[in-house]
Amino acid sequence: MSRACGGRKEKEQRREVPTNPVQRRVRELVRFTQLLQRVHPNVLAKVLRQGILHQDNDLVVINKPYGLPVHGGPGVQLCISDVLPILAKMLYGHKAEPLHLCHRLDKETTGVMVLAREKEVAHQVQEFFKTRQVAKKYWAITVRVPVPAAGVVDIPIVEKEVRGRQQHYKMTLSPSYRMDNGKMVKVRTSRSAHVAVTQYRTLSNTVSSALLELQPVTGLKHQLRVHLSFGLDCPILGDHKYSDWSRLAPQKLPVGTLKRLGLEQSKARYLPLHLHARQLTLPALGSRREELELVCRPPRFFVRSLKRLGLRLPSQDQHGDDEAGHLGTQ
Description:
alpha+beta, 10-stranded mixed sheet, two-stranded antiparallel sheet, globular
């Protein structure tokens, strides 16, 4: 009997709604992202259709929601690639071939994502990405402010094992030089390291946080997160993986940042990654003779965090998009 009572209490505690509005919205966002992976594929396809940013004879460009994986894998119940056949039929009729992925975004990243109607077109766009012909711009909210306010991070990146109680792998910096007794000494480069270059500039900042525009010249796994956290000492807000090298734990935030966000440190684990694929510019393709500029406004949780932290969006982006279409609860 006591075990049953204990079980009921646990369920009641889980159902408790936070009284703090910020904590409530963060919890709702977490619940929404879990819901997106559990809904029927038709429902997810409808959400993606509502977020279409551009559509022509060759391409369909969607606004990728937060927390939705692009590909399947361990623990993934539903992903974007699963619903591409359904989305194609919704847009072009029952005989339509599945849409094709042209590139990928991390599960936690929101924003511009390009799909192609034909496999040949997808290969062309993939080649554009591979040969660095696509201009990419991301927005990120950071903990702390970069010095200098604008510049280029040109530090190779390598994947390494993190030893300790929680053994895991992370991307990290593999610099070509290090300081030794005040002198700069060239380091033997790791064979596994890859060239990684990120251009950045500060769009808005306070004493303890910033809104950055990022232009990755290369496209390595987790490049922006690694360059910001380990290169500039400005981790992205909500980056629980790269805010600390040696452990996997919720991001530790300064007291002032927690206060502005209206969060307790114990609830910081629910903060989403504030990294948004803001803009892509594609070269001329097929019958289109000019470049195609694709722009996506940031999601509402991103805009709310900006306001809480006292950061300003560029004037044309004062309103964020809905994250969820008709499913949204945020």
